[in-house]
Amino acid sequence: xxxxxxxxxxxxxxxxxxxxxxxxxxxxxxxxxxxxxxxxxxxxxxxxxxxxxxxxxxxxxxxxxxxxxxxxxxxxxxxxxxxxxxxxxxxxxxxxxxxxxxxxxxxxxxxxxxxxxxxxxxxxxxxxxxxxxxxxxxxxxxxxxxxxxxxxxxxxxxxxxxxxxxxxxxxxxxxxxxxxxxxxxxxxxxxxxxxxxxxxxxxxxxxxxxxxxxxxxxxxxxxxxxxxxxxxxxxxxxxxxxxxxxxxxxxxxxxxxxxxxxxxxxxxxxxxxxxxxxxxxxxxxxxxxxxxxxxxxxxxxxxxxxxxxxxxxxxxxxxxxxxxxxxxxxxxxxxxxxxxxxxxxxxxxxxxxxxxxxxxxxxxxxxxxxxxxxxxxxxxxxxxxxxxxxxxxxxxxxxxxxxxxxxxxxxxxxxxxxxxxxxxxxxxxxxxxxxxxxxxxxxxxxxxxxxxxxxxxxxxxxxxxxxxxxxxxxx
RNA sequence: GGCACCGUCGCCAAGUGGUAAGGCCGAGGUCUGCAAAAUCUCUAUCGGCGGUUCGAGUCCGCCCGGUGCCUCCA
Length: 475
Hints:
Elements: E1 4-7, E2 12-15, E3 23-32, H1 39-57, E4 61-69, H2 73-82, H3 86-102, H4 119-131, E5 135-138, E6 141-144, H5 160-165, E7 181-186, E8 201-203, H6 205-217, E9 221-227, H7 231-246, E10 251-257, E11 260-262, E12 265-266, H8 277-283, H9 286-294, E13 302-303, H10 306-331, H11 341-347, H12 349-359, H13 364-380, H14 385-400, H15 408-423, H16 427-442, H17 446-458, E14 461-466, E15 469-474
Parallel strand pairs: 3-4, 3-9, 9-10, 11-13
Antiparallel strand pairs: 1-2, 5-6, 6-7, 7-8, 11-12, 14-15
Helix pairs in contact: 2-3, 4-6, 4-7, 6-7, 9-10, 10-13, 10-15, 11-14, 12-13, 13-14, 16-17
The chain binds one RNA strand of 74 nucleotides through strand 3, helix 1, helix 5, strand 9 and helix 7.
């Protein structure tokens, strides 16, 4: 059984076979750094982070490239609005990206190239296209001539005639054909610019990904990923550029993640219905967000709501409590005495079903079902070798999904910090009530004990009597 | 208008044509002074109507409802 992945190009799940055995080249479109990331960005990052982790898990060496678009109209506008240099905007939001995504336990790609560090590679490609008469200069801009590429539309399933008859194709007299797109844009006075054979300007959006993927992964590489919204025109144009240049299809598997919706509607900047990660972290733990985002298969739309995050919080807490319990039991036994532990973990049914689900186009929703069942087994298991193997299989699977980045104690603390900030928690008062209750309990004054607990419940505190004493947390 | 996609329990969410995973919520049992946590048990015939088939949530057609792309967008 091996990995199958849905290829947008064919519209089917295909067996994933890398070009070079056990080596995978993967390029994922990153973000344009002019603002803070929202949940949609997080989903894309998590999906491909999960794919990255899984590819490694099944024995591949992965060369993973994720770019930053650091020159574009929106960046220039933002810089003008704030009265700072455009580089300052980039610096600020790249740093924010790393901070916000880091909290989601997104692993670092092999390389995170920036567009502006690769202008020469882009100019080289543009020149090649111009030389082959697949691109033309017009008033300082350079456009790709769509009619020179007969397969245009192959990825998105569009045909040129349909696009032309569509109402939203812009009319532009500098283009030979309305569908032609910019490879190089002449700069206006005062804008950042680079020298080129066609005068000072800056790259069009699409060329950077073609140039950088070629630079780091070669003319043809295995996986190119991004959000569904990039299929057209971005990735379609990349194909046109790369094929035009090298005569080869650049990508073997096109992988696209579905959107995050708000009330069934796509979360997007232009609709203004987006939540930044920073805002969400004020109310919910980042790992909870990750769990929520992998609880659906990556191609399905996923509806973002507070209710869903609250559900995810419960699940994540249960997972960490399960982990704490498992760790405690594991401590009581000598794991090293188990012969061939790794082999037994690999052959465990939980590992097998994890792999089967992941192999089926990364069906993380099914993995969650298996993890829940695994947890139920662990919670009721007695301490023995079988338990240790199951526990190990369970933890390993969760980690490939990027979960359990923290420890149960730390997670609990962080959750507490988030909740208490939103609730105005008075720890002294709580501890006093718990002490009073325990005093009452000792003298079997149950009504007084219950009164204390009712008061705690009223302020949102949940208490649990354990052999080690009374524990409490915020509901 | 063109091209795609989606509609499964109150909510979230899986489901190679062979008889509906899992989670949240809810009900009941065990545990507990009572709770909580844990654990056990219970809770859907798949938007509608036709068709293909021995058999359909799963294929085909039509209808209803919703979304996306066609413009920057993860």
